[in-house]
Amino acid sequence: MSKIKSPTIRVETSAAKTCEAVRAAQQAGKTVGFVPTMGALHEGHLSLVDASLAECDKTIVSIFVNPTQFGPDEDLKNYPRSLDRDLELLEQRGCWLVFAPPVEEVYREGHETSVDVGSVALPWEGKSRPDHFGGVATVVLKLFQIVPADRAYFGQKDYQQSLVIRQMAADLNVPIEIRVCPIVREPDGLAKSSRNAYLSPEERKQASGLWQALKIAETLVAEGETSAAVITEKMKPLLEHVDVESRCFERVRSTKWRRSQKRRS
Asked: How many angstroms separate the CA atoms of 119 and 167, rounded?
C-alpha cells in the first residue's frame, strides 16, 4: 500500500509496516507512545500527544474512523474527517508516525471476531448503545496488535471507555501501559470533542448547562453529600432552565474498578 504524502511526518497505511517500525524503534532502545484517534483532532487529542511526547522517545498516532463502534442510525458517514489538517497539527507537535489505514487494512474480508468485556460495558452509555463498547474494545485490541507500543494514551472525557479498555487490557494480558489523561474543556466548560461541531447555539447552551450542573454535584460531594437523589434534586433547577432532561445520575466510586483489578493480580 502506498504512503499518504506529508512533508516530514511519516504516514503509513500498512499495518505490517507500522508494526515493523514500532518494533525497530523498540529494538533500538526507544520507548514508543501511542495515541489512538478517529481524527478531526482538537486540543483534547493533542494533549494526549503532548503527554506521550513528554514520556516517550517516539509517538505514533492512529487516525481511523472505526465502523464497528457506530450503531446503524449513528453518524458514521457524517463523522468529521480532516486528514490533511490532522497531519499538519501532528507534524507541528513533533509526532513521529501516523497510522491512517483504510477500513480493509483493519478489518479483512470475512472478519467475524469481536471482544466482549462484560459488565463494565453494560450500564450508562452501554445501555443506550449496546454494540458500541464491543466495537471499541475490538478495534483497540487490533490497534494494540498493529502498534505494540510501550504506553497508550486515552482521554478521561470518555470515562466508561477508559474502563472498558483497561478491563480488556488486563483480562487479555496486553503488555501496554494504559494512561488516562485529564479532560480538556472549552471556555464554557464543554469538553473538547470532534462532535461539538454538530451543536447548534441552543444545543451548545444546553451542553454548557449540563457541565454547570455537574459542577454543582461536584461541590455537594466535596461537602460530604452522598445521596444521588439529593444531588439530582439540587441539579434539577439548572437542568430545567436550559431544557435538559435528566435521564440518569449515579454516584460511582472510581476506586471500585481498581480494587477489582488488584484482586485479579
From this structure: 10
Q: Are residues 17 and 79 in the same domain?
A: yes
Positions annotated as catalytic residues are 45
Q: Do 217 and 170 share a domain, yes or no?
A: no
**How far out from the chain centre does Cα 249 lie?**
22
Rounded CA-CA distance 186/204 in Å is: 11
pLDDT, residue 254, reads 56
Cell reading at 119? 459488565
**Is residue 211 domain-shared with residue 167, that is, in the same domain?**
no
Question: What is the SS3 string spanning the chain?
Answer: CCCCCCCCCEEECCHHHHHHHHHHHHHCCCCEEEEEECCCCCHHHHHHHHHHHHHCCEEEEEECCCHHHCCCCCCCCCCCCCHHHHHHHHHHHCCCEEECCCHHHHCCCCCCCCCCCHHHHCCCHHHHCCCHHHHHHHHHHHHHHHCCCCEEEEECCCHHHHHHHHHHHHHCCCCCEEEEECCCECCCCCECCHHHHHCCHHHHHHHHHHHHHHHHHHHHHHCCCCCHHHHHHHHHHHHHHCCCCCCCCCCCCCHHHHHHHHHHC
The structural domain count of the chain equals 2
The 10 Å Cβ neighbour count of residue 102 is 10
Q: Do the domain assignments include residue 190? A: no
Per-residue pLDDT of 46-82, as tens digits, reads 999 999 999 999 999 999 999 999 999 899 998 999 9
Residue whose C-alpha is closest to residue 77's, from 86, 85, 65, 62: 65
Supply the pTM of this predicted model: 0.88
Same domain, 26 and 110: yes
| 165: containing domain | 10-181
